[in-house]
């Protein structure tokens, strides 16, 4: 039985540790919290969800839903635990953050193969190891990574949304509904805005004072997580076509679509906490309070957590790492999670799972593998290794990552259905190939 070091107890590290243990390896999992904290984490729990409680859509015609389906076939711990900690969120998979983190922590602690150590790692471990310290990697370790890879690294700023108390939302000025009626009817609270209210909200976002430092003005935001005030500055209707779009959210009291809708998504099973969907921001706290008060249903809302902004670090993967995510001269030291330039909970966990699979293969004397680019996981990894190193930016799961279909199919939904069917078939065949190879290796040992 080999020993593998996993650095980082977030989503990627937790998934990696579990997968390695399931393959018979002893794992030492290092997590620096609570001894060393970060600007975004609030607990010492493993797999803590920082920005949102949503893993996004479960539908395979959605890129994130397709990636989930692939990971379920690969035996993902995170998705199994997420199903058990689920809260109503329509077609999305959203969880009670505390229940989710607690359950992941219990699962890992219960494995005799895994030793959890609460201490900061300031130097890169020797292979075999997985480094999954996330976008908030501590400065000493990131310095060690820079020294090892010979680069200054890359970074961008990420923002998180405010959370309000559910009992403080005005029911007379809001309604419960999921978009297009999908999923549970009480998954979201919808706070409608008329045209005047929308314009007032946009003006407040544009004129609000933001937290500002010289370095913040030089670093790009990730397009998938733009601060709401930045999006508001892109045009009068940018918010109405973005996080405040009313499409599919008819007000049952009028039977009509509002001009705009601020959605609240349930944070916990009891419905005590609700997240302002798409309202990540760098506004100062007084400005956030003033903006939220402009939403009629939230004029008396109790704000439980204000939006925040923090720096996210990542490695220039295509310039510096091998196809499977290691330094080119040390294949058994694999980077995983958002540190590699993926963006999103499921994407991070996916890279942790794949890193564990490849460490296991290397320890068994086999070559690392990557899923076919017809799958969402394979397409994501192809992007990381083939993107232009001069303009490398973090990437979410999306259908543009997939190998095109042999035949053109008209209609976005039909095209996505065909892409998803092909991806699920190909991930099935790929996993079967790995299983057969593993069985053969075990039989010859």
Automatic annotation (TrEMBL):
Domain MnmG N-terminal, chain residue ranges per copy: 3-366
Similarity section: Belongs to the MnmG family. TrmFO subfamily.
Keyword annotations from UniProtKB, A to Z: Cytoplasm, FAD, Flavoprotein, Methyltransferase, NAD, NADP, Transferase, tRNA processing
Any single Pfam family the record assigns to this protein: GIDA
A molecular-function term among this protein's GO annotations: tRNA (uracil(54)-C5)-methyltransferase activity, 5,10-methylenetetrahydrofolate-dependent
EC number per UniProt: 2.1.1.74
Gene name of this polypeptide: trmFO
Organism, as annotated: Candidatus Kutchimonas denitrificans
InterPro entries assigned: FAD/NAD-bd_sf, MnmG-rel, MnmG-rel_CS, MnmG_N, TrmFO
PROSITE patterns: GIDA_2
Keyword ATP-binding: no
Gene Ontology CC annotations of this record: cytosol
Localization in the cell: Cytoplasm
Positions contributing to FAD binding: 8-13
Catalytic activity: uridine(54) in tRNA + (6R)-5,10-methylene-5,6,7,8-tetrahydrofolate + NADH + H(+) = 5-methyluridine(54) in tRNA + (6S)-5,6,7,8-tetrahydrofolate + NAD(+); uridine(54) in tRNA + (6R)-5,10-methylene-5,6,7,8-tetrahydrofolate + NADPH + H(+) = 5-methyluridine(54) in tRNA + (6S)-5,6,7,8-tetrahydrofolate + NADP(+)
Enzyme's top EC category: transferase
KW rRNA-binding (keyword) present: no
Cofactor(s) of this protein: FAD
Name by which UniProt lists this protein: Methylenetetrahydrofolate--tRNA-(uracil-5-)-methyltransferase TrmFO
Function recorded in the entry: NAD-binding protein involved in the addition of a carboxymethylaminomethyl (cmnm) group at the wobble position (U34) of certain tRNAs, forming tRNA-cmnm(5)s(2)U34.
Listed GO biological process terms: tRNA methylation; tRNA wobble uridine modification
